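Section 5.1 Outputs to date
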Amino acid sequence: MSIVHWLNSEAFTAFDQHVVWSDLIGNLLGLAALALGWRRAMLTWPVQVLSGVVLVAAFWGAHLGGGVGKQFVVITMAGWGWYQWRRGGAVRGHLTIRFATWRERAVLVAATGLGTVAVASLFRTFPALSWNPWPDAYIFTGTLAAMFAQGRGWVEFWFAWLAVDLVGVPLNFHSGLPFSGLVYIVYFVLVIAGMYAWWQQTRRVPPAIRPTSDTPSTGTVAEGVTA
């Protein structure tokens, strides 16, 4: 039996839903990646990549081309975020955690809105890709926005994940996926805790770091990146 066949074999049945190993393992890795992101650990990115790879098998086995495409984009964004964090820590071994500027927030929100319209239009043109195009497109685009903000070290990364979860939880339960809905609820709790932790970091300036001409002084903080 190949690894793909094993990943797409049944792990257990709950609430009349057949949960396969790829769905179970991929979601658990996703939870681990979010928890590592809360701790600002560099390991969050390779774990996100592994989660995406496993979930590709899940969506491939379910014959959901849109889901497969989403995971490839998530893997790419995780690789980009990994590079951003490593580059940010190359100078002093620190990652800057800060709030986005109003301009950055406006661009992020506008891009999310336009992206949602574009992806929903694609889903409506090809109905086989999604049975519920608008919330599906919103979750897809919101995930990209959240990962982009995380790669930049913005506290708004957590607000973006919160906005995704508020739609993802009811959508999964409505779709007859109680396991996935439960995972989203766990994500919701981790997001609230992580949001508070990152928010607090913007209020602490380590004494060893002094503002310079190329260091923003608008409430930013350089926090160590752990492995």
